[in-house]
Design brief:
single chain; 295 residues; alpha/beta; five-stranded parallel beta sheet; four-stranded parallel beta sheet; 15% strand; binds phosphoric acid mono(formamide)ester
């Protein structure tokens, strides 16, 4: 990895994607090391998070780095300090990396321009979530043994930074992706994300899938799911039964059980949702190592 920051899947070559996945495998059981001793990582999260924030914190700690979790609610932002001044203030304190999540598209990119710090995009608006895509690729590779798979990403696609990053990453790895949901959730422009096909017919694609990737309905971004959503597009036990025997079900979390996915499916043997979460730590270790080691 030559880029100083990871803002988009596009920042990584195909070889670098594989390099991160392989390094994550090597890091899987590492919980104590001094590989990043002396480095400081700040988690700068302006949006809620459980998985991404905590896994970045664990990843940095496992590598021996110092970690600071920036609490927006307790910060000088309440006194009117801008995001740019916040980033410059953290840079002046000598931190090495900012892990940035924000509800607005592009904030991690701006932060990388304002400072000389390494910036990792931990999810910006509806734009990108590159480390989620990397941990998803690792999960697919480990369970299915390959990445040239047939994937359906189902649900609130238009609002999904996960779908955008994952579709691009899958395309680069030779996968075929179909984006599926009601027309208002899967606008035609999403077909430009890495050779994806758009469909509104869930039932017809299920029997051919290797990966059934379910998205949360993002009500905070204006999506609505009426009482018929589960009936039309929810991944129920009946729909999961139409998948091939080896196919896996994925979800980036947090889940709305009983809306886009039923508990029967989320907790079934074909679900790899907990494996996705587990892979988040070593994948983020690999990313932090590639960006910060040897600087
Ligand atoms: N998948 C994901 O980004 O989860 P969090 O919002 O909990 O970080």
């Amino acid at each position: 990895v030559v880029a100083r920051s990871l803002l988009s899947v596009a920042d990584l070559s195909n070889d670098e994607i594989v390099e991160v996945l392989d390094l994550a495998v090597a890091f899987r059981w590492v919980t104590i090391s001094s590989l990043l001793r002396g480095r400081t990582v700040v988690n700068l999260f302006y949006e809620h998070s459980t998985r991404t924030r905590i896994s970045f914190e664990l990843a940095a700690k496992h590598l021996g780095a110092e970690v600071v979790n920036f609490s927006v609610a307790d910060s000088a932002e309440a006194k009117g300090e801008s995001l740019r001044d916040t980033a410059l203030t953290l840079e002046a304190m000598g931190v090495d990396a900012l892990v940035v999540r924000h509800s607005a598209d592009g904030v991690p990119y701006q932060t990388a321009q304002w400072t000389n710090l390494s910036v990792v995009n931990a999810g910006d608006g509806t734009n990108e979530h590159p480390t989620q895509a990397l941990l998803d690729l690792l999960t697919i590779r480990e369970r299915l043994g390959r990445l040239d798979v047939n994937v359906a990403i189902i649900g609130d696609v238009g609002h999904s930074r996960v779908a955008r990053s994952l579709t691009r990453a899958l395309y680069r790895m030779g996968a075929q992706t179909t984006l599926i949901g009601p027309p208002e959730m899967v606008p035609e422009f999403t077909a430009s994300w890495g050779g994806a096909t758009v469909s509104h017919d869930l039932e017809s694609v299920l029997p051919d899938l290797d990966v059934c990737y379910v998205l949360r309905v993002q009500r905070e971004r204006g999506a609505t799911a009426g009482s018929d959503y589960r009936k039309e597009y929810g991944i129920t036990r009946g729909r999961a039964a139409k998948l091939p025997a080896e196919a896996v079900v994925m979800h980036p979390g947090p889940m709305n059980r009983g809306v886009e996915i039923d508990s029967d499916v989320a907790d079934s043997p074909r679900s790899v949702i907990r494996e996705q979460v587990a892979n988040g730590v070593p994948v983020r270790m690999a990313v932090l190592y590639e960006l910060l080691a040897g600087e």
